[in-house]
Specification:
Number of helices: 6
Helix content: 40-55%
Mean pLDDT: 76
Shape: elongated
Strand order of the largest sheet: 1-2-3-5-4
Number of strands: 5
Radius of gyration: 21 Å
Distance between the termini: 45 Å
Strand content: 15-25%
Order of helices and strands: HHHHEHEEHEE
Structural class: alpha+beta
């Protein structure tokens, strides 16, 4: 029996290690994509401005109107999240794109301390898991809520003295806790799921912090407080 428990524990630990590795690789790729996109938008905006100026000078209103229409995504660029920390920006903007695709609103307030003693892979684990959990719960609540339901996720990242606080709030359906005090996953296949928040807590504890979760008036709140240790 002891050997079986040890084997199961080793399997779970290896699973968490593999998931962390995948999350870190994902964040690296996302970071590269957003950096490249930012450069592309920056250069393209300059090119379109020159084309528009030349068209105005030549009196070609069709080109002026066309460049104005295709530059709309560039004018929307300031709406993207720029915290000053590439990793945080990449993760938040990735989650924002996923939320928009699902018809979910995200209200993000970020005041990220830079430099930060928290390692990139640990930030990746905490942010990805918190946001993935919020998107999962909100999508499920939206599906059950009907036409009058407004799916909104609130994200707040800020410094409180020597601590970094990450708080994510989202609507949720009726969630129940298991015997260990953790909320059951809402995913159709629970096998291998439901460990995201446990991983967040374990990561926060590395920095003398913790994760607190609660539900009030149909809103699920996950709040992480970690010591910056500067």
């Amino acid at each position: 029996m002891k050997k079986l428990l040890k084997g199961t524990l080793r399997s779970k630990i290896r699973f968490l290690e593999l998931k962390n590795e995948l999350l870190e690789e994902n964040h690296r790729r996302l970071n590269e994509i957003y950096k490249e996109n930012a450069r592309l938008y920056h250069d393209m905006n300059h090119h379109l401005q020159i084309i528009s100026w030349m068209a105005q000078k030549a009196g070609n209103t069709e080109i002026v109107d066309y460049t104005a229409s295709i530059s709309e995504p560039i004018r929307q660029l300031p709406d993207m999240i720029w915290s000053g920390f590439d990793l945080v920006d990449a993760i938040l903007n990735h989650a924002l794109a996923l939320a928009q695709a699902k018809g979910i609103l995200m209200d993000v307030n970020v005041e990220f301390p830079n430099p930060c003693a928290i390692t990139a892979d640990d930030l990746c684990v905490m942010l990805f898991n918190l946001l993935d959990n919020a998107l999962e719960h909100t999508a499920a609540a939206d599906k059950a809520g009907g036409a009058s339901f407004t799916p909104v996720i609130l994200v707040s990242i800020r410094r409180i003295e020597q601590f970094l606080m990450i708080k994510v709030q989202n609507p949720c359906g009726e969630l129940k806790k298991n015997g260990f005090g953790w909320f059951f996953t809402t995913k159709a296949n629970p096998l291998g799921h439901g460990i995201g928040l446990q991983n967040v807590r374990k990561t926060a504890e590395k920095y003398g912090g913790n994760l607190e979760t609660s539900i009030q008036d149909g809103v699920f709140t996950a709040a992480v407080l970690v010591f910056l240790n500067e």
